[in-house]
Amino acid sequence: MYGTAGIPDIIACIRGRFVAFEVKTDSGRLTKLQEATIQKIKDAKGKAYKVTSVEEVKKILDNLED
């Protein structure tokens, strides 16, 4: 409603690394535009993830490289 189409729901700089999260329900699917945006972030050496829970985000953050 307020975001730009295709841009992940949450974007942050964590320990100097660009990290983005696309939040979905367990049955939620990425759109083609979301898939393309996530790939562009990864190609630029950022980190981007589709997540479905806070626990999943915590695991990802715990395993981020410094």
Relevant terms:
single chain, 66 residues, three-stranded mixed beta sheet, 2 helices, 32% helix
List the helices and strands and how they pair.
Elements: E1 10-14, E2 17-23, H1 32-43, E3 47-51, H2 54-62
Parallel strand pairs: 2-3
Antiparallel strand pairs: 1-2
Task: Explain what this protein looks like in three dimensions.
The radius of gyration is 12 Å and the shape is globular. The mean pLDDT is 93. The chain is built from 2 helices and 3 strands, in the order ββαβα. The chain is α+β, with helices and mostly antiparallel strands. The protein has one domain (10-62). The protein has helices at residues 32-43, 54-62, and strands spanning 10-14, 17-23, 47-51. Strands 1-2-3 form a 3-stranded mixed sheet, with helices on both faces.
